Amino acid sequence: MIRHTTGGPGDRFATLALVAMLALAPVPARGQDAPPASAAADSAGVAPAPTPAPAVSPAAPTNAPAMVGKKKVRLIGKDNVARSGPGDGFAIVGVYPKDAEFTVIAKSDEWYDVRLSDQETGWIHASLCRELDDLSGLEFRPNPKLYTRTGSYVLSGYAGAYAFDRKSNSLVLGGRLGYYVFDRILAEAGVSWTHVQRSQEIVESLFGLSLEAEDFQMLFYQLNVAWELMPGRQMVPFVGGGVGSSILLGRSEPSINFGAGTRLFVSKRAAVRWEFRDYRFHGGSGSSRLTNNNVEFTIGSEVLF
Predict the structure, then answer these.
(1) What's the Rg (C-alpha) of the chain?
(2) What is the pLDDT of residue 102?
(3) What are the backbone dihedrals phi and psi of residue 191, each rounded to the nearest 5 degrees, phi first?
(4) How far apart are CA 300 and CA 289, in angstroms?
(5) pLDDT at 266
C-alpha cells in the first residue's frame, strides 16, 4: 500500500522529472570502469590536454665493445719521462708532472705502456710510477716452449759411423761452429776425421785383375747451411747441405753434401743432435776416377752462447 503525501503542484512535477532522468540514464556493466575524464571533456566540448610521450632510451649498438675496468698508474717522480718503447734507448715522447694518472695498456718487465692521450701512447719505467690496481694480468708472457735463437753461436762435437764409398765402416769424429742468421737458418763450418780401412777386394784394371786393400786417414771439412722446419721449439728437425773438401791419399778432392737431422734442446742453451748426411766427391787418378758416395751417421751435443 502506497501512501501519497500531499504537496504542491511544483513538488509533484520535480519528482516526475527526477524519475524520468533516472530511467533514461545508461547503467555501466559490472566490472567496467567509469569513462575517463578526457571522454567526459570531449562530450562537454572541451579539447583534452595532450598526453606526453614516454621517454625512449636510445638502443645500444649491437657491436659495441664490452666495457672493462681500467687499470691505472700514478706518477711519483718530479719529471717523469715517457718513451716510445720499453727501454732507455727509445725516444722521449713527453715529460709529465707528479701525481698525473694514466691508463695502462700493457706491461713488459719494468715498463708500463700507458695511454697519454686519445691518439698517443708511451712507456714509463716502474721507478717513476705507482700501481693503483693489480696489473699482473697485463704482463707479456710468451709461450715458454718457444725461443728466439737469432744471433746465437752454436758449438758442437759429434761422433758416429762413416761408410767410405758405401763399402767400409769406420769411426768418424768432428766438430762444428755455427751461427743463427735467423731462427730458421743456421750457417756452420765443420771439420771431421776418419780412418778408412777396407780389406782386399778384386779390382779390375788395364793390367788385369788384382787384389787391393785400402788403409788411409781422411780429413774433410765443409761449409753448410741448415734450414729448420719448426724453429724455436724443443725438438727441431732440419734439412741442409753444403760444400767442402776431402783430403785423402795426398790429394784434396772438392765435395758436396746434403742431409737431414733433428735437434733436441734439453735446456735453452744445450741440445742433442743426430743426423744423416751423404758426401759426394771424385776419387782416384787418371781414367780410373770414380764418384764416391760416403754415408755418415752421427750423434753429438751442442752448446749455444
Answers:
(1) 49
(2) 92
(3) -140, 140
(4) 33
(5) 93
pLDDT under 70: residue ranges of the chain: 1-70, 133-145, 166, 198-213, 284-289
Give the integer Cα–Cα distance in Å for 260 and 54. 77
Return all residues near 146 (Cβ < 8 A) that are at least 6 apart: 232, 233
Reported in sequence order, the residue ranges of 206-250 that DSSP labels E, i.e. its strands, are 208-228, 235-248
Q: Among residues 174, 178, 143, which one has the least CA distance to residue 271?
A: 178
Q: Are strands 80-83 and 208-228 parallel, antiparallel or unpaired?
A: unpaired
pLDDT, tens digit, 9 for 90 and up, residues 15-41: 666 655 665 555 554 444 445 444 444
Helix (H, G, I), strand (E, B) or coil at 249: coil
d(CA 121, CA 105): 9
Three-class DSSP category at 64: coil
Contact predicate 145/286, CB 8 Å:
no
Cell of 61: 649498438
Query: Do residues 242 and 223 touch, judged by C-beta distance below 8 A?
Result: yes
If 0-12 CB within 10 Å is exposed, 13-18 middle and 19+ buried, where does residue 94 land? middle
Q: Give residue-wise pLDDT tens across range 47-61.
A: 555 555 444 444 444
3-state class percentages of the chain: helix first, strand second, coil last, to nearest 5:
10, 50, 35
Q: Enter the C-alpha cell of residue 130.
A: 705507482
**Would you state the cell numbers that stand for residue 56, as one nine-digit string?**
625512449
C-alpha cell at 269: 742453451
Structural domains of the chain sorted by starting position, each given as residue range(s) with its CATH number in brackets: 72-138 (2.30.30.40), 153-304 (2.40.160.20)
